[in-house]
Design a protein that fits this description.
Layout (H helix, E strand, L loop, with lengths): L3 E7 L7 H22 L6 H6 L4 E2 L12 E4 L1 H7 L1 E2 L1 H16 L4 E9 L2 E9 L5 E2 L10 E2 L9 E7 L7 H25 L12 E2 L8 E3 L1 H7 L1 E2 L1 H14 L5 E8 L5 E8 L5 E2 L1 H4 L4
Parallel strand pairs: 1-11, 2-4, 3-9, 10-12
Antiparallel strand pairs: 1-9, 5-6, 6-7, 6-8, 13-14, 14-15
């Protein structure tokens, strides 16, 4: 089965928010790695994979495309490719420490400005505050965010080995981590931009994506395109409630298709425990 691709379309990046938003996406990848390692204890350690030549460091972003999109691989996708870049490796190191050594390491982002664009480099922070550098060269691994034309826009594509019949719980847990990450990104954006109208009044409408396309848009991207799918709508709705200090969450509702596969519809779990389908309010039929 081919890997599944979900792209975070981020259009609200600025020098202050950008490192926090990229760190949120990297933490999400770390949780995906940790979930996989917990379910697959047979995966060799990173050090043994590197020493045996089964996994090497990719010096450049994997799958980089002219629009600024780049691939972030989960563990099975990286093993299949035989290589991983600094982002994937830093998340993998942190996940391995959490799952196999009980050390609550976390990926962190070091950021710097290069003209109008933000560059970032991932590291791993240990509980005592020390940094574990995945890459030995201090100048290696810096990556620019956005494109020269649009320094506030970035596309991060998760390449995930999910949706296989024996991995349904792992699939659902990974997707929930991603929904939580997008909700967190949206909440940070709304806190910084209190002028943004609530989603029901923002002039956006529901539009289903073409088959095979999975763009998970942040608030800024949705405001620009004026169209959104359920995986964009429910995180925004949950985020605006969180900004008002109300506990809400974007959640999945699996639906069985005729061929036996699962289709996921994204809803919003409200503070009182009820579930809201904001997509229907915005035009889904």
């Amino acid at each position: 089965m081919r890997p599944y691709r979900i792209t975070f379309a981020l259009g609200g990046l600025d020098p202050e928010l950008c490192p926090k938003q990229i760190a949120t996406v990297l933490e999400c990848l770390t949780w995906a790695h940790a979930l996989y390692l917990a379910n697959h204890p047979e995966v060799p350690s990173l050090s043994s994979l590197a020493s045996s030549g089964r996994l090497r460091h990719a010096g450049a972003p994997i799958g980089f495309r002219p629009d600024g999109e780049e691939d972030w691989l989960d563990i099975p996708s990286a093993l299949r490719a035989g290589k991983a870049d600094g982002r994937t490796l830093s998340a993998w190191v942190a996940a391995e420490l959490r799952v196999r050594q009980g050390v609550h390491a976390k990926p962190v982002i070091r950021a710097r400005m290069n003209g109008r664009r933000v560059e970032y480099r991932p590291s791993v922070k240990l509980p005592d505050g020390t940094l574990h550098e995945v890459l030995s060269n201090p100048e290696a691994g810096w990556r620019a965010v956005g494109t020269p034309q649009h320094p506030d826009r970035h596309r991060l594509c998760y390449v995930l080995d999910l949706f296989q019949p024996d991995r349904l719980p792992l699939t659902q847990a990974t997707l929930q981590c991603m929904l939580d990450a997008l909700t967190d990104i949206d909440a940070r954006y709304l806190q910084r931009h209190p002028e943004v109208a609530p989603i029901h009044q923002a002039g956006v409408r529901y539009e289903e994506e073409p088959p095979g396309q999975e763009d998970w848009q942040d608030v800024a991207t949705t405001l620009r395109t004026r169209t959104c799918d359920c995986d964009d709508i429910s995180p925004w709705r949950a985020a605006e409630l969180r900004v008002r200090l109300l506990n809400a969450r974007a959640i999945m509702k699996p639906q069985k298709k005729a061929d036996g596969s699962s289709l996921y519809h994204i809803l919003t779990l409200m503070p009182d425990g009820t579930v809201e389908d904001t997509s229907r309010d915005l035009g889904m039929r």
